[in-house]
Write a structure and sequence with these properties.
The protein is an alpha/beta fold and 406 residues long. 42% of the residues lie in helices and 14% in strands. Strand 2, helix 2 and strand 3 form a beta-alpha-beta unit.
């Protein structure tokens, strides 16, 4: 697999030099400063390519911008409201400009309002570092008592509601404010963040829009943009919901194998694929990740490799970002399946048979604390994860070579 590294641009607390020393072969990034719905211009794309190509001291980085993560889909497109058709036209123009710049893979998601959601961005771990955590009880306390969403109580079982009612009484004003900030933070690296008032407004935009309609809106989006992607040679890979269950009364449509099957059946374009995020999908105990990797192998355009540990084998649940080779996902078997898919691609003559991957998220360890990195994207924690994943890949490749007599 091709080992990539996510970088959030010149303001990122983790440098390109750090990425290169970690052994990254290329960079995953985006134009985080461009408002959602605006065109990514050729000039802005070229500027970011130059940012990636050179280190802070002007020397060549030896790296290139290889994959877009992400080109955000506007709320207007998701709800089919406002200037949704104009947003689709601008999205298509951005795809053309991205292709013209020599980049051929674009990751996106179709999560309504909130992107990945955590209640704690620095939960203490037994080894002394910290990790991101989603606590269902704390989230329910936010929903019921801080956001005050109408009808929220019906979305949680009685035990969770009772625990949430007790938990909210233990949080002071500063802790409540920090919890609201964590949950409404928006896309990693983005300039856009929700206040409680704007979050309530966005939720109102989805009033009456159920799961079936959101799915159809996703299909309609792809039916409009996939032909453009095919024509210009860009692959679209949809990131699963994170966490993969409904939040704040909002539907989720990309959480399970059945969700991906339905999407690929509805839009069979070869340009439409999956960002295989083992962390997001691994939150659900009913997702068999090795089986999903086998089934969707030909449509697996990008892999996010990370691990989570659940507090219970039920949905919804609490979970935290575990070390890459720990947690509830059998990472070794997943990587074995991905390497087998690469061999299949090579055998049929695919010129770009390598699956681009990156170590996703990471615990804050050693010098990560206070480094200014994006939540979930520390230097040392990801370096440790990439080293572990690389070791697994090398070992599995050596075993396969021996079996093949190479």
């Amino acid at each position: 697999m091709r080992q990539l590294w996510r970088w959030f641009g010149p303001a990122d607390g983790v440098s390109l030099s750090d990425a290169r020393q970690a052994g990254a072969e290329g960079i995953v990034t985006a134009l985080h400063h461009v408002p959602t719905g605006d065109v990514w211009t050729p000039e802005a794309i070229a500027e970011r390519q130059r940012d990636v190509a050179f280190l802070e001291d002007g020397r060549s980085s030896g790296l290139a911008w290889e994959l877009v993560e992400s080109l955000p889909v506007s709320e207007a497109i998701k709800t089919r409201s406002g200037d949704w058709s104009g947003d689709i036209e601008r999205y298509c123009q951005s795809l053309e400009n991205i292709s013209d710049a020599g980049i051929n893979t674009v990751c996106y998601n179709f999560m309504p309002v909130l992107d990945w959601t955590r209640t704690d961005l620095a939960a203490p771990m037994a080894h002394g570092g910290t990790a991101m955590r989603f606590d269902l009880v704390v989230f329910a306390a936010f929903d019921l008592h801080i956001l005050g969403r109408s009808g929220a109580v019906s979305d949680y079982d009685g035990a969770i509601v009772r625990e949430a009612n007790a938990r909210i009484r233990t949080l002071d004003t500063i802790e409540r404010s920090k919890l609201a900030e964590n949950i409404s933070a928006g896309l990693p690296g983005a300039e856009e963040h929700w206040s409680l008032g704007s979050l309530r407004d966005r939720l109102e935009d989805y009033a009456g829009l159920g799961r079936d309609q959101l799915f159809q809106n996703h299909v309609a989006f792809l039916e409009a943009v996939a032909p453009v992607a095919e024509r210009v040679g860009v692959r679209l890979c949809c990131h699963p919901d994170d966490p993969p269950f409904p939040l704040l009364g909002l539907p989720r449509v990309v959480s399970t194998a059945d969700d991906y099957r339905a999407l690929f059946d509805a839009v069979p374009s070869p340009a439409v694929g999956i960002t295989f995020c083992t962390g997001s999908l691994g939150v659900r105990p009913d997702n068999d990740l090795p089986a999903m990797a086998r089934e969707f192998g030909p449509r697996l355009f990008f892999a996010h490799l990370r691990n989570v540990s659940r507090d219970r084998n039920r949905i919804p649940c609490s979970f935290f970002e575990d070390e890459h080779l720990e947690g509830d996902t059998d990472m070794v078997t997943v990587i074995d399946v991905l390497l087998a898919e690469e061999r299949r691609r090579a055998a049929v003559g695919c010129p770009d048979f390598e699956i681009p991957m990156r170590p996703d998220h990471g615990q804050d360890i050693l010098s990560d604390s206070g480094s200014g990195s994006q939540p979930g994207y520390p230097a040392v924690g990801r370096l440790k994860g990439l080293a572990e994943l690389r070791g697994v890949m090398r070992a599995l490749q050596a075993v396969d070579a021996r079996r093949s007599g190479v």
